[in-house]
């Protein structure tokens, strides 16, 4: 099976917004108040015809004017919309790109008409498929194509398969390879538009519709037709497979429930519809920022709809929003709301800044949430017990039937309220974590800028760093503003929770059996929510425990390198690090280790070394933490060429090691193969061979400075590294000279418990070794000559300097 890859070249995309105004329907007798100009501008006239010219120029009119990528008037057909705003995107789908097209608008504005269409005016779903099959048919390569489609609806935050006769509730799963998937959703292989049309009609007939005041057959659910085009490129060897995904979404009406005279079930539908749409709006806002500015938090998890659309909305996806509006004067508010939303979809704002917590604070947030929920559950349990006693003592009268439904509604709303709170809290936590990362990057950038500024002729680098810094600042502000919005939503949610609680209390006071049942179901729902949180907490615990484990390994490593516990704690204290008690476990058989490399016994005194002068921190900022680092040249030129920013959350420790090696004593890199041993160095070689008995001598020429250390030969150290390697600790190293960046044709590999280091040609008198960890080492103690000595070139002396990100 070939690999699935996104196309090699990525182009940045912006959300395309098209507005489509439908004609007045027969039922509507109002005035047409929408005008479309230049295929881009939409003007909504004031519905109040008594307003005159004077009102208009004095800005007393409600007339609104917007501009979009495309605008279509009442006479435009679906084909017009398709050809101008969608068609080119469909070509990309066949090439392996993702695309999402969604119709947004209030009830009766023409979303379903636009997406599905009629026999005479086929909608975007049909037209897109036509193009796909057309392109496949006309394709003159020998590539194999396969088109599959699935059709689902999200109704009241529950997913149903529209291609199944009686679909049960479907669940979302996070698949490590495929991303978010709907477990159990049918995916049907199709080879003609006719077949898809059949499926669409079938699916549409199963959609949940209701008659609202505005639309007789109003869709109450969000429908997602997903078309996957898999293409096997035969001419390549091995055959490559691309997969393009097109999601066509017919959203439910965006109106407020109150505006459609809804009550009961309809009211609840309305609330859920709006929750999903709000979540979608938030994602689109965040994505808009991200496309321009990089790392911004996108709150996908706030609704099922946004989780389903996540893949299509992010990554290599072109997203097109079709905002549908009615021209009727009585729908002025709906129209303006839709246009405002569409307008926002392309806007980017600047925002205020807020302080941020730490990772520990996030964990305690989770703990607080769980505590609150547990409190709620135990209170309800107590109330149930009390009620049960009352019921045993005095059998209650039968209540009226409608009380049951009232209680059910109350119970459902309470559960939704809890769920919403959980989602908001999670979103807040994720947002904070994103900003925490942003702030770390900001700090690194500030350090890097400060360092670069003292170096002459580094204007371009400083400029790049500064523009990145601005991007990060903007992201932080944006995320903070989103956080404030969420915080407000949490407050509203809390208020509602209080109201619901009062209603429950009242019901408990006044009623018997039915209330008991109501509380029972409430209790059950809270229990479920509680379990979910416990699960999340367990996952967090797991992360924390693996971080602790990583710290333990670090302890072992440092101790194996010759530092004792006291020294490590002291070093930590010097750097302001509190060493956690739990991490100080007995080292893995290393406690009896005799310091393997006592450099102090040798002739390598600190006085032989010059302290490192460093732009190193800045450079490391440029490079992603990757084991490929060794293959990149670190000279100044390439540094500029690969101006790639490290986004990893890495707290690193650098050791700068100076040695008196002559820059001219230089031998080109000869081999990529790890070799056990070290090269013929200067006058120190013999002494080194004595002090590094586990390394064999390796003669490569008089000036070769290659050397390697194999930890396998030091069993105890190997233990530590083996454990660390299981955790995939990345170790990159960089080589710095005192005068200029030279090269990094050197490698560190660490496979199967072995860490081998080879410095290709040490045309350098300063060596830097970076220890980076994606596992979240809080900080490495400052290295000393002892703890790094096993990886030193034999002639290297002892001047260390720590650099931390
Ligand atoms: N471009 C159009 N030309 C003619 N009639 C249209 C057009 N767009 C919509 N209509 C008519 O308007 C009515 C409402 O359209 P539609 O059902 O597509 O709205 P909707 O936005 O999907 O509503 P809901 O959100 O309630 O499902 C239908 O009777 C439909 O035939």
Q: What is the assigned CATH homologous superfamily of the largest domain?
A: Kinesin motor domain
Q: What is the CATH first-level class name of the largest domain?
A: Alpha Beta
Q: Approximately how much helix is present in the residues?
A: 40-55%
Domains counted in the coordinates: how many? 3
Radius of gyration: 33 Å
Which cofactors or ions or other ligands sit in this model? Answer: adenosine-5'-triphosphate
How much is the average pLDDT? 62
What's the β-strand tally? 21
CATH architecture of the largest domain: 3-Layer(aba) Sandwich
Shape: globular
Helix/strand/pairing category: alpha+beta
Portion in strands: 15-25%
Number of helices: 18
Enter the CATH topology name of the largest domain: Kinesin
Q: What ranges have pLDDT less than 50 throughout 5 or more consecutive residues?
A: 1-10, 256-267, 348-362, 393-399, 581-805
Sheet of most strands: 9 strands, mixed
Q: Report the end-to-end length measured between terminal Cα atoms.
A: 41 Å
SSE topology:
Layout: E1 16-21, E2 34-37, E3 41-44, H1 53-57, E4 64-67, E5 70-72, H2 78-95, E6 98-105, H3 111-115, H4 124-138, E7 144-155, E8 158-161, E9 171-175, E10 179-183, E11 188-190, H5 193-206, E12 209-210, E13 218-219, E14 222-233, E15 240-250, H6 264-293, H7 304-313, E16 317-325, H8 332-344, H9 359-393, H10 401-453, H11 459-510, H12 513-560, H13 565-574, H14 616-622, H15 636-641, E17 653-658, H16 685-691, H17 715-726, E18 731-736, E19 746-751, E20 754-759, E21 766-771, H18 785-788
Bound molecules: adenosine-5'-triphosphate (ATP).
Coiled coil: 363-390
Binding site for ATP: 105-112
Keywords: ATP-binding, Coiled coil, Microtubule, Motor protein, Nucleotide-binding
